[in-house]
Amino acid sequence: MKKLGVFISGNGSNLEAIIKATKEGRINGEVALVIANRKDAYGLKRAEKYGIPTLVVSLGNCGAKEAYEEVILKALKEKGIKWLILAGYLLLVGPTLLNAYKGKIINIHPSLLPAYKGLNSIMRAYEAGEKTIGVTVHFVDEGMDTGPIIKQGSFIVPENSSLEVVEAMVHDLEHRIYVEVLDGGKS
Ligand code: GRF
Protein backbone atom coordinates (compact mmCIF):
# COMPACT_ATOMS: atom_id res chain seq x y z
CA MET A 1 0.00 0.00 0.00
CA LYS A 2 1.58 3.25 -1.17
CA LYS A 3 1.20 6.24 1.14
CA LEU A 4 0.83 9.30 -1.03
CA GLY A 5 1.10 12.99 -0.23
CA VAL A 6 -0.64 15.05 -2.92
CA PHE A 7 0.41 18.67 -3.49
CA ILE A 8 -2.07 21.17 -4.93
CA SER A 9 -2.48 24.89 -5.50
CA GLY A 10 -5.97 25.07 -7.00
CA ASN A 11 -8.88 23.13 -8.43
CA GLY A 12 -7.79 19.60 -7.52
CA SER A 13 -9.58 17.55 -10.19
CA ASN A 14 -6.52 15.29 -10.52
CA LEU A 15 -6.42 15.00 -6.74
CA GLU A 16 -10.04 13.86 -6.71
CA ALA A 17 -9.43 11.32 -9.49
CA ILE A 18 -6.54 9.89 -7.45
CA ILE A 19 -8.53 9.79 -4.21
CA LYS A 20 -11.43 8.02 -5.96
CA ALA A 21 -9.05 5.48 -7.50
CA THR A 22 -7.55 4.66 -4.10
CA LYS A 23 -10.98 4.31 -2.52
CA GLU A 24 -12.14 2.03 -5.36
CA GLY A 25 -8.97 -0.11 -5.28
CA ARG A 26 -7.71 1.05 -8.70
CA ILE A 27 -4.58 2.34 -6.97
CA ASN A 28 -3.06 0.17 -4.27
CA GLY A 29 -2.44 3.16 -2.08
CA GLU A 30 -3.83 5.82 0.17
CA VAL A 31 -3.78 9.59 0.00
CA ALA A 32 -2.53 10.21 3.54
CA LEU A 33 -2.19 14.00 3.29
CA VAL A 34 -3.10 16.80 0.91
CA ILE A 35 -0.72 19.74 1.01
CA ALA A 36 -1.76 23.13 -0.37
CA ASN A 37 0.25 26.31 -0.57
CA ARG A 38 -2.96 28.38 -0.73
CA LYS A 39 -5.82 28.24 1.72
CA ASP A 40 -8.34 29.01 -1.04
CA ALA A 41 -7.33 25.99 -3.15
CA TYR A 42 -10.63 24.32 -4.09
CA GLY A 43 -8.95 20.92 -3.91
CA LEU A 44 -8.93 21.28 -0.11
CA LYS A 45 -12.72 21.01 -0.16
CA ARG A 46 -12.48 17.88 -2.30
CA ALA A 47 -10.04 16.33 0.19
CA GLU A 48 -12.27 17.19 3.13
CA LYS A 49 -15.25 15.58 1.37
CA TYR A 50 -13.35 12.28 1.49
CA GLY A 51 -12.07 12.81 5.03
CA ILE A 52 -8.45 13.18 3.91
CA PRO A 53 -6.21 15.24 6.23
CA THR A 54 -5.01 18.53 4.78
CA LEU A 55 -2.13 20.86 5.47
CA VAL A 56 -1.99 24.45 4.29
CA VAL A 57 1.41 26.11 4.38
CA SER A 58 2.01 29.49 2.81
CA LEU A 59 5.45 30.17 1.41
CA GLY A 60 4.95 33.86 2.19
CA ASN A 61 4.38 33.14 5.88
CA CYS A 62 7.52 30.98 6.10
CA GLY A 63 9.78 33.58 4.53
CA ALA A 64 11.95 31.16 2.54
CA LYS A 65 11.51 27.96 0.54
CA GLU A 66 13.69 25.96 2.91
CA ALA A 67 11.66 26.87 6.01
CA TYR A 68 8.42 26.28 4.07
CA GLU A 69 9.51 22.82 2.94
CA GLU A 70 10.81 21.90 6.43
CA VAL A 71 7.29 22.41 7.80
CA ILE A 72 5.88 20.17 5.07
CA LEU A 73 8.64 17.56 5.44
CA LYS A 74 7.90 17.18 9.14
CA ALA A 75 4.23 16.46 8.40
CA LEU A 76 5.12 14.02 5.59
CA LYS A 77 7.45 12.08 7.90
CA GLU A 78 4.87 11.99 10.69
CA LYS A 79 2.38 10.40 8.29
CA GLY A 80 4.92 7.94 6.84
CA ILE A 81 4.40 9.26 3.31
CA LYS A 82 6.54 7.56 0.66
CA TRP A 83 5.53 9.32 -2.58
CA LEU A 84 4.92 12.99 -3.37
CA ILE A 85 2.36 13.52 -6.10
CA LEU A 86 2.11 16.99 -7.62
CA ALA A 87 -1.33 17.78 -9.02
CA GLY A 88 -1.57 21.38 -10.14
CA TYR A 89 1.06 22.50 -7.61
CA LEU A 90 2.38 25.81 -8.85
CA LEU A 91 5.68 26.05 -6.95
CA LEU A 92 9.01 24.54 -7.89
CA VAL A 93 10.08 21.81 -5.48
CA GLY A 94 13.19 22.89 -3.59
CA PRO A 95 16.26 20.97 -2.39
CA THR A 96 14.75 20.09 1.01
CA LEU A 97 12.00 17.92 -0.48
CA LEU A 98 14.01 16.83 -3.54
CA ASN A 99 16.74 15.40 -1.28
CA ALA A 100 14.33 13.78 1.16
CA TYR A 101 12.26 12.15 -1.63
CA LYS A 102 14.83 11.33 -4.34
CA GLY A 103 13.12 9.61 -7.28
CA LYS A 104 9.81 9.64 -5.42
CA ILE A 105 8.26 12.90 -6.66
CA ILE A 106 5.95 12.80 -9.66
CA ASN A 107 4.15 15.53 -11.60
CA ILE A 108 1.57 15.69 -14.35
CA HIS A 109 1.74 18.35 -17.03
CA PRO A 110 -0.89 19.09 -19.68
CA SER A 111 1.34 18.93 -22.76
CA LEU A 112 3.55 16.52 -24.61
CA LEU A 113 6.79 17.58 -22.91
CA PRO A 114 9.28 18.94 -23.73
CA ALA A 115 6.81 21.07 -25.71
CA TYR A 116 4.79 23.73 -23.88
CA LYS A 117 6.46 23.75 -20.49
CA GLY A 118 5.07 26.19 -17.91
CA LEU A 119 1.65 27.80 -17.64
CA ASN A 120 -1.31 27.85 -20.07
CA SER A 121 0.04 24.88 -21.99
CA ILE A 122 -3.28 23.69 -23.37
CA MET A 123 -4.22 27.12 -24.68
CA ARG A 124 -0.81 27.61 -26.27
CA ALA A 125 -0.92 24.22 -28.00
CA TYR A 126 -4.49 24.87 -29.16
CA GLU A 127 -3.68 28.33 -30.47
CA ALA A 128 -0.63 26.99 -32.28
CA GLY A 129 -3.00 24.68 -34.16
CA GLU A 130 -1.45 21.45 -32.89
CA LYS A 131 -3.20 18.44 -34.42
CA THR A 132 -2.19 16.18 -31.56
CA ILE A 133 -2.39 17.29 -27.95
CA GLY A 134 -1.45 15.30 -24.89
CA VAL A 135 -0.23 15.02 -21.33
CA THR A 136 2.95 13.89 -19.57
CA VAL A 137 3.60 12.23 -16.24
CA HIS A 138 7.22 12.71 -15.19
CA PHE A 139 9.62 12.56 -12.27
CA VAL A 140 10.34 15.92 -10.70
CA ASP A 141 13.78 17.49 -10.61
CA GLU A 142 14.88 21.04 -9.79
CA GLY A 143 13.66 22.42 -13.13
CA MET A 144 10.22 23.40 -14.36
CA ASP A 145 8.57 20.43 -16.11
CA THR A 146 11.97 18.93 -16.91
CA GLY A 147 12.40 15.56 -15.11
CA PRO A 148 12.51 12.13 -16.79
CA ILE A 149 9.28 11.18 -18.53
CA ILE A 150 7.33 8.22 -17.14
CA LYS A 151 4.35 8.14 -19.48
CA GLN A 152 2.64 10.26 -22.10
CA GLY A 153 -0.80 10.08 -23.64
CA SER A 154 -2.32 12.01 -26.52
CA PHE A 155 -5.32 12.40 -28.81
CA ILE A 156 -6.02 13.90 -32.20
CA VAL A 157 -7.84 17.19 -31.82
CA PRO A 158 -11.29 16.82 -33.38
CA GLU A 159 -11.91 19.25 -36.28
CA ASN A 160 -13.38 22.59 -35.23
CA SER A 161 -13.36 21.80 -31.52
CA SER A 162 -13.38 24.72 -29.11
CA LEU A 163 -10.64 25.33 -26.56
CA GLU A 164 -13.10 24.33 -23.82
CA VAL A 165 -13.71 20.95 -25.43
CA VAL A 166 -9.98 20.33 -25.85
CA GLU A 167 -9.34 21.33 -22.23
CA ALA A 168 -11.99 18.89 -21.04
CA MET A 169 -10.41 16.13 -23.16
CA VAL A 170 -6.98 16.90 -21.72
CA HIS A 171 -8.22 16.78 -18.14
CA ASP A 172 -10.08 13.55 -18.74
CA LEU A 173 -6.91 12.01 -20.17
CA GLU A 174 -4.88 13.34 -17.23
CA HIS A 175 -7.17 11.71 -14.71
CA ARG A 176 -6.89 8.34 -16.47
CA ILE A 177 -3.15 8.40 -17.10
CA TYR A 178 -2.23 9.60 -13.61
CA VAL A 179 -4.20 6.75 -12.05
CA GLU A 180 -2.54 4.25 -14.43
CA VAL A 181 0.94 5.44 -13.46
CA LEU A 182 0.20 5.46 -9.73
CA ASP A 183 -1.31 2.01 -9.91
CA GLY A 184 2.01 0.68 -11.25
CA GLY A 185 5.41 0.88 -9.62
CA LYS A 186 6.58 -0.24 -6.23
CA SER A 187 5.27 0.65 -2.80
C1 GRF B 1 -3.57 20.07 -14.64
O1 GRF B 1 -3.80 20.40 -15.99
C2 GRF B 1 -2.16 19.60 -14.42
O2 GRF B 1 -1.64 18.92 -15.49
C3 GRF B 1 -1.41 20.91 -14.24
O3 GRF B 1 -2.28 21.72 -13.53
C4 GRF B 1 -3.63 21.33 -13.77
C5 GRF B 1 -4.26 21.06 -12.45
O4 GRF B 1 -5.63 20.77 -12.54
N1 GRF B 1 -0.14 20.68 -13.62
P1 GRF B 1 -6.40 20.24 -11.29
O5 GRF B 1 -6.09 21.20 -10.14
O6 GRF B 1 -5.92 18.85 -10.99
O7 GRF B 1 -7.85 20.27 -11.66
Commentary on this structure:
The longest helix has 21 residues, at 163-183. The protein is built from seven helices and seven strands. Strand 1 (2-8), helix 1 and strand 2 (29-36) form a beta-alpha-beta unit. The protein has a single domain (2-182), classed as Rossmann fold (3-Layer(aba) Sandwich). It has 187 residues and is of the alpha/beta class. It has helices at residues 13-23, 43-49, 59-62, 65-78, 95-100, 121-127, 163-183; strands at residues 2-8, 29-36, 54-56, 83-86, 105-109, 132-139, 149-156. It has a seven-stranded mixed beta sheet with strand order 3-2-1-4-5-6-7, sandwiched between helices. The N and C termini lie close together (6 Å). The site of 5-O-phosphono-beta-D-ribofuranosylamine has 13 residues, from helix 1 and strand 5.
| Alpha carbon gap, first and last residue | 6 Å
* Average predicted confidence as pLDDT: 96
Instruction: Please give the number of β-strands.
Output: 7
**Which architecture does the CATH hierarchy give at level 2?**
3-Layer(aba) Sandwich
Bound ligands: 5-O-phosphono-beta-D-ribofuranosylamine
Question: Any idea what the CATH superfamily is called?
Answer: Formyl transferase, N-terminal domain
Instruction: Output the number of helix runs.
Output: 7
Number of domains: 1
Helix content estimate: 25-40%
Poorly predicted runs of 5 or more residues: none
CATH topology: Rossmann fold
- List the secondary-structure elements in sequence, H or E: EHEHEHHEHEHEEH
- Shape call: globular
Sheet/helix structural class: alpha/beta
